[in-house]
Automatic annotation (TrEMBL):
Lineage: Bacteria, Pseudomonadati, Campylobacterota, Epsilonproteobacteria, Campylobacterales
Protein name: Uncharacterized protein
Provenance organism: Campylobacter lari
């Protein structure tokens, strides 16, 4: 362990009394605007539909 942190590594964490724990829903909502994958699910669904359509029109589709 790095020598610089020996003085603080074993200090017990004290939760702040003036700030009660935030519910998970509110904590998650704080980070929603930063989602890198906005619109990703729509793109996946479009790709899935395109692939299904291509398979339906494919001559390599297995005969039932």
């Amino acid at each position: 362990m790095h020598e610089d942190y020996k003085d603080i590594i074993d200090i017990k964490y004290q939760k702040p009394k003036q700030f009660p724990p935030m519910p998970r829903e509110k904590r998650a909502a704080q980070f929603a605007p930063f989602s890198v994958l906005n619109g990703f699910s729509k793109a996946i669904l479009k790709t899935q539909k395109d692939m299904e359509k291509a398979l339906e029109n494919s001559k390599y589709q297995e005969e039932s």
